[in-house]
Prior knowledge:
By secondary structure, the chain is of the alpha/beta class. It folds into two domains: about 5-95, Udp-n-acetylmuramoylalanyl-d-glutamate--2,6- Diaminopimelate Ligase, Chain: A, domain 1, CATH 3.40.1390; about 105-220, NIF3 (NGG1p interacting factor 3)-like (Udp-n-acetylmuramoylalanyl-d-glutamate--2,6- Diaminopimelate Ligase, Chain: A, domain 1). About 40% of the residues lie in helices and about 25% in strands. The protein has ten helices and 13 strands. The chain has helices at about 5-15, 45-55, 75-90, 100, 110-115, 140-150, 180-185, 200-205, 215-220, 220-235; strands spanning about 25-30, 35-45, 60-65, 90-95, 120-125, 130-135, 140, 155-160, 165, 170, 190-195, 210-215, 240. It has a six-stranded mixed sheet with strand order 5-6-10-11-12-8. Helix 2 packs parallel to helix 3 and helix 5 crosses helix 10. The two termini are about 35 Å apart.
Amino acid sequence: MKREELIRYLDELLEPARFRDYCPNGLQVEGAGDVQRIVAGVSACQALIDAAVERGADTLLAHHGWFWRGEDGRVTGFRKARMQTLLGRDINLIAYHLPLDAHSQLGNNARLAALLDWRAEGRFGEQDLGWIGRPAAPQTLAELARQVAETLRRAPLCIGDADRRIERLAWCSGGGQGYFEPAATLGVDAFLSGEISEHAVHLARETGVAYLSAGHHATERFGVQALAAHLSARFGLECDFIDIDNPV
Length: 248
């Protein structure tokens, strides 16, 4: 498949132009013109790049790419090492950030709902990145925390009464702690995100809305994995998802 065809398809699928993002979406580093083998992962770190080299990939597909707003733009140190590896092996870097959080089927929030058997009922917050819905059946916060731990293979940090009955909940993967206050005004019993801020602990205690902080990496493994599987099924591309462990 030609690189330009793949980027055109991904842009149509994920609609990056709809989002005000913190980084460029789509092709970030140009490599080989023909795409046959893709390595996918959460973040385009050196370990993931090395995994792409080891597998003979021509394309790296990530959720967290490069060139973030406000970062030092000089290509030195670890930035030089990363870019030198990609350019030296003619490997494309393709990354989609907020578009891959938001997609209604392949996005991180959609995949979280599917894996945890939650019934999505709507969106909320800036750029509609927050999701709201219900568990398959009412459960206590302790039961919800156990389900999340089993599914994500990581025990969440929980703020709230373990016996609280959870009938409605909201969620936003990754660094979605800013969506907690809007979620709390919607009458939910719990909110899940990848991270939690200091002030959110007090807000959870004062509102009674439980907060589950389940890990930025842990909550964002599933979107890029689903996207890679989709590309493999649709175009016959070889796609390997590599999970580079990250405790945060």
